[in-house]
Amino acid sequence: MRYHIDTIPVWDAAKLDGECLLCALERKTELGEAERYLGASVMEPDVRIRVNDRGFCRRHHAMLFTMSNRLGHALMLESHTIEVREKLGKIRGELEKAGKALQASGLGDRLNGKNKAATAVILKQAENVRNMAGSCVMCDTIDENMRRYLHTFFHLYKGDADFRKRFAESKGVCLPHLGQLLETAAEELSPKELGEFTLMLTELEQRNMDRIQEDISWFIKKFDYRFENEGWKNSKDAVERTANKMRGWCVGKEPIPEE
Asked: Are 125 and 94 in contact (CB under 8 A)?
């Protein structure tokens, strides 16, 4: 089949023979976005507007902090903080009105529902604060890219026999991406294709979960004096690989090779 700008990264990730090709794509996207936000794009108006509005989650603040560009990080924090203060000013106004209403409430207010209305305002503003504190422009972009890669995955799966064979013989995917694959498969595949894919994927995941279980169990046994003279087999990095299989890549060796 003809390869294009979206199919090449998916094929490249499949050739890595890692624990999850989608984790490799996700991590590559994440690193690229971090470099972009700390690079020249930090001064681009459209980028600053998105950063000001959405900010970064804790994970991505921690990531940006380690990338040796404190000034770039500070510039984004400053403008985001200005916008957050403006939003909080509006929230504060609503909370003050609700607080004063509750503070001055009497028996009649408890009976006629005014207290419930004021409490509802406080809960609504609490939700607004949570949403504001939980948004992340990098997470948004990564999610958008991963939706495109999932679509491309099935484009390849349906049209490229070599890709289909390679994936069926791979180490499978992590649990979070297993769920995403199944959800996307239901949208992308015909009923017959969906049935065949589901059976293949469940067998693939079971085979590789058995492999992971064997490795982590042997790793533990190596701390028993009875097995201290036995070889490590394939278990030296079993802790990292097991954690990454359970929750997506998070520890150990990067899922993409160093360039």
From this structure: yes
Q: In degrees to the nearest 10, what's the CA dihedral of 49, 54, 58, 59?
A: -80
DSSP for 83-103, please give it.
Answer: HHHHHHHHHHHHHHHHHHHHH
For residue 16, give the 3-state DSSP assignment: coil
CB-count exposure of residue 26 (10 Å: 0-12, 13-18, 19+): buried
Q: Tens digit of pLDDT for each residue in 27-75? A: 999 999 999 888 877 678 888 899 999 999 999 999 999 998 899 899 8
* Structural Rg of the chain based on CA atoms: 25
Q: What does the alpha-carbon distance between residue 152 and residue 181 come to, in Å, rounded to a whole number?
A: 12
For the chain, the domains span 7-12+21-139, 161-247
Q: Is residue 176 a contact partner of residue 248, using CB atoms and an 8 Å limit?
A: yes
